[in-house]
Amino acid sequence: MKTNKLLDEIRQTMTPEMKRQMDLSVQIANRIYEIMEDKGLSQKDLAHLLGKTETEVSRWLSGTHNMTMATLAKISSALGTDIVRVTKKRNRKTAILL
């Protein structure tokens, strides 16, 4: 995970929940960067695909922005791949006793 000194200092004053949110935000931003790199896309290219400004995309990719599910879905669709994957619980068949 990418970090910097200022963020590390801020993290020391945060609750565990806030730290987890920050970690997830950075992981998501890093995942988006990986996909963009694999596809040879710049921030400008992603902004164009989304109809957004480069500034807005830059904010999203800073790892400090709290993206909505709608934003994640739009980015995922624009990139043509999952950014976040939720695993499903295995389907358990239950026995019914009569």
At a glance:
It contains five helices and no strands.
Task: Offer a few descriptive terms.
98 residues; mainly alpha; 58% helix
Can you walk through the features of this model?
The structure is a single chain. The protein has 98 residues and is mainly α. Helix content is 58%, strand content 0%. α3 crosses α4. The chain is flat, with a radius of gyration of 18 Å. The mean pLDDT is 86.
Topology:
Elements: H1 5-11, H2 16-39, H3 43-50, H4 54-60, H5 69-79
List the secondary-structure elements in sequence, H or E: HHHHH
Beta-strand percentage?
A: under 5%
Q: What is the typical, i.e. mean, pLDDT? A: 86
Termini Cα gap: 54 Å
Structural class: mainly alpha
Task: Specify Rg, calculated over alpha carbons.
Answer: 18 Å
Question: How would you describe the shape?
Answer: flat
Give helix % range: 55-70%
Number of strands: 0
Uncertain stretches: none
Question: For the report, how would you describe the main beta sheet?
Answer: none
In DSSP terms, counting alpha (H) and pi (I) runs of 4 or more, how many helices? 5
